């Protein structure tokens, strides 16, 4: 039996709707600018250019319902997204087989230190300081695909203190879920436990302490997160 020189890190796991069993998380991939209107609001051409991805850390996922406002930023934005949870993976997965690897779906927020991300963009540096900070991905439970099917349409909204900020539809994704899985598998070996955040519609904006964000997606329920 292996021994370790330090205590082994805790396995990151998400609740699964309808069971006490947990979904263990291996990696978190996030696609950028996957809704045309959001690409435009961020100053980019929404034409179907090749997708790009960045990563958050597994322990950035947080189902607690609270989002602690992070240090070193005065401009933290919400980005409401659906995530995909994989039960298997591989390399060079054909698009037509991609959905066979999906365990379920859920709701999440890609919280972003926009000011720090902007600084990194100007200097041509990686985004992790703006994207992969502690508890930067509030999320709900994983909902098994047996309950949801494979949602490819449905209204997505996010309100802050009751005011609608983000509105879109899953059918507005530039790159669909099977395409994302297939494309990622060309560059990474996907595996059970991987999470893919599928992008956000337009309307991203700042939050402050005390704000209450409510995200909802047709067929996937809602997620409420308070900024603390």
UniProtKB/TrEMBL annotation:
Cited SUPFAM superfamilies: FAH
Molecular function as annotated in GO: acetylpyruvate hydrolase activity; isomerase activity; metal ion binding
Gene3D superfamilies recorded: Fumarylacetoacetase-like, C-terminal domain
Domain Fumarylacetoacetase-like C-terminal: 28-228
Metal-binding as UniProt keyword: yes
Superkingdom of source: Bacteria
InterPro entries: Fumarylacetoacetase-like_C, Fumarylacetoacetase_C_sf
Alphabetically ordered keywords of this record: Isomerase, Metal-binding
Coiled-coil region: none
Keyword Isomerase tagged: yes
PANTHER family for this protein: ACYLPYRUVASE, FLUTATHIONE S-TRANSFERASE
Protein name: 5-carboxymethyl-2-hydroxymuconate isomerase
Organism: Marivita geojedonensis
Lineage: Bacteria, Pseudomonadati, Pseudomonadota, Alphaproteobacteria, Rhodobacterales
